[in-house]
Hints:
Number of domains: 2
Strand content: 15-25%
Oligomer: single chain
Number of strands: 12
Amino acid sequence: MLVTSLTTAALFVPVVTANELNLQQMAAPLYRTEKQITFHRLDNGLQLRLLPLADSQLVSLASQFSVGSRDETSGQTGYAHLFEHMLFKGSENAPGDSYAQTMSALSGQFNASTFFDFTNYYLTIPSEALKLSLWLEADRFIRPALTDKTVKNQQDTVLEEMATSIDNQPYVRKAMEFLLTQAKDTPYGHAVIGSREDVKNATTEALTKFHQTHYRPDAMQLSIVGRFPDSTSQWVKEEFGQWQNPVQALKAPLNMQFENSPVHAEVIDERGPWPALLLAWHTVGQTHRDAAAISLLEDYLFQNRSSLIKQSGLTDPDQLLTYSIPLTMEQMGVTNLVMVPRAKTSLDRLANNVELAIKSLATDGISDEALSQLKASWLNKRLQLIERPSLLARALSATLAQDSLTPLTGPWERINAVSPTQLQAVAQTYFSQGYVRLDLLPPWYIRWTKTLLEWFPTGMSDTLEDLVL
């Protein structure tokens, strides 16, 4: 009976393909690394993850707060980003530039960034400076010292940043404002950097209130990766444990849905060097059941070196350049693609090429082998985090609530569960129902020259294109 039972059971062992086995083997370091992470949640809600690296002489800290431009009210756009700047300009026990001076004296590397949904702060320091750094981090997060002088100084810095990265770049301001209108009347309907008027009018009192409302321990994830002593978790509790939350509860996640429909517009910029095409599709937020499939689909269409768009440009390409940085927020996502045409190619032709690629995927789907390659590419990017403690700390501090105990393997298992059928369905649902098209156009004489080149024989247009560009 025992032999019969074992033989019968053996007949039902699932078959593991070579591709699946390779992916399992590739993912093994994620599981091994994750087992070394210890997770603590302080009584005030602060989440702490510790990952020891015994062979390191450094330690990386990353603190992410679930506050971003989506939390700004009318008249206060840009406050999340402006306040990020303020946290480097003095706290109760480390006034002025003490923080930056101390970190520089320790040969520390530090920076921060603000997005729609979050603000993060990160630094890498010698392990011996960890206790001091935790004290400095707690002091500036809990007890920032805002003065009229530092506010004015950082207003000027942000306005200069706005001018350099947005206003002085061809197409950027007009394209950004047009795209933001597609999320009008939502928390994502204004730029992260804010409006020039709101930044200029920010006051010390308003920024202080912003801090008191949004910087709170139950909105914070702290990750520490590197060499640190066993007393580290106790140090964190000593510095952050007494931090109290505001009376009002954290905001509940929003529930927003966007429909894709054809939208076509154009902007003309007299500084534009050459025409370009910007395409965008509404997708879904990070916690949506289709988020993993959309991530793979974006790679397959636009981002991987072997993507459909990149492959179409290997021989006699229609485009000079393609560029895609998908935006993934908590409750919405945007897939985007910028394409710069060759002299012989019209913007309509570029758009048609993309439509054909999407139609092919939505109609014919993708093979198991191609999907495995996409998953392997995703894994490779994830595995690179393990080799870079600073990036790994930042990734751990960006953990979704559903992955609180599986910050590395949770996202991978959702990626690995995507099937060819789901990928095809996602292409049909989010990419085949229309998209936003924005033509980025230079001054008339460049447009005229470009139109003329489109009519020339290919060899001649290529030669003239080199001269023009």
